[in-house]
Amino acid sequence: MRILHTSDWHLGRSFHRVGLLDAQAAFLDHLVATVRTHDVDVVVVAGDVYDRAVPSLGAVELFDRTLHRLADAGVPAVMISGNHDSARRLGVGAGLMGRAGIHLRTDPAGCGEPVVLADRHGDVAFYGLPYLEPALVREEFEELAARPDRAGQPVGHEAVLGAAMDRVRADLAGRAAGTRSVVLAHAFVVGGVPSESERDITVGGVAFVPAGVFDGVDYVALGHLHGAQTLTERVRYSGSPLAYSFSEATHRKTVWLVELGPDGAVGAERIDCPVPRALARIRGRLDDLLADPGLARHEEAWVEATLTDAARPYEPMARLAERFPYTLSLVFEPEHGEDDPHASYARRLAGRTDQQIAEDFVAHVRGGAGADGPERAVLRGVLDEVRVDATVREVTP
């Protein structure tokens, strides 16, 4: 069976205030063409179809047109909701669309109920695990609370994904011998490399789940991280089809064409996505950037310029735009020593989690005495509560 694995379309998203709907439409044209030219049997979309819980009308219309084109091509699709999607909104009409071969899996209660498709070698069961926000799905996975080994422990991503996969394996065990299996999941799996454009899904300071959570199935189609990655031969991220931050300037944007053999063996190749405009990150003093002949190749790219001038130059954006008309981001990082008190606040916080920043603040106001164990737990609980509250408010009409 030939499977086209994609994810993280983020329909409706912009790039530094530049609308990307036309570029997203071009990608979806490419996707439909790829389905036809490569004789794809099924398309899987591993979450973040939209960029926000309440997408724009243009994004919804683009999604609708794409579903019609896939249905007209007679190629089924299996899709899950991601952390950017409103699961309830995306899942509206799922039952009716399923009759046309468009299978939306947005309800955690359906993790163990696959979409079963067949080829000449037999059945393939596709299990959709939508993004599972632990604080919102713990009642669905109430068996977690009953486990003695988890008494008093917070329910995190690993726990809820493990419970969902237990349901997958239980269903698969009851199917005919030789039934192959594919799992779609939206999560941050150990070994994956993030970029700056993914929304944080940290819970209790732990966002990662081990790849071993998915043991027992033939292929795992992951979404959430925006770079295409192979964690194991059977566990892969497709990445986003477009770049959504300058941290993705070196990404090669692709989809996976996965060949699932009759015995469950997996082969995969990457198919390049159309690039609306190259990305470039340039760094140096303004006069040097404007004069450097080696930067000529970036003159038609979307540019992020980091200026290292000791003093802020006059009208830097206007001057940059004369040579690099598609400059979208301007960053100032004067060349000072690491101990310079004027070093940017953002630079000092780079790579630190909200929990670490909060603990640093406690140590600062106490003259160096950091938070103890119970205080760290309180900080963690408050940060989780704020993040979950923001998620609930975003998806509630």
Automatic annotation (TrEMBL):
Domain Calcineurin-like phosphoesterase: 1-226
Keywords: DNA recombination, DNA replication, Endonuclease, Exonuclease, Hydrolase, Nuclease
GO BP terms: DNA recombination; DNA replication
Top-level taxon of the source organism: Bacteria
Nuclease SbcCD subunit D C-terminal domain span: 276-364
InterPro entries documented for this protein: Calcineurin-like_PHP, DNA_Repair-Maintenance_Comp, Metallo-depent_PP-like, Mre11_N, SbcD, SbcD_C
GO molecular-function terms, A-Z: 3'-5' exonuclease activity; endonuclease activity
Subunit comment: Heterodimer of SbcC and SbcD.
Protein function: SbcCD cleaves DNA hairpin structures. These structures can inhibit DNA replication and are intermediates in certain DNA recombination reactions. The complex acts as a 3'->5' double strand exonuclease that can open hairpins. It also has a 5' single-strand endonuclease activity.
Family to which the UniProt record says this protein belongs: Belongs to the SbcD family.
Name of this protein: Nuclease SbcCD subunit D
Taxonomic source organism: Streptomyces paludis
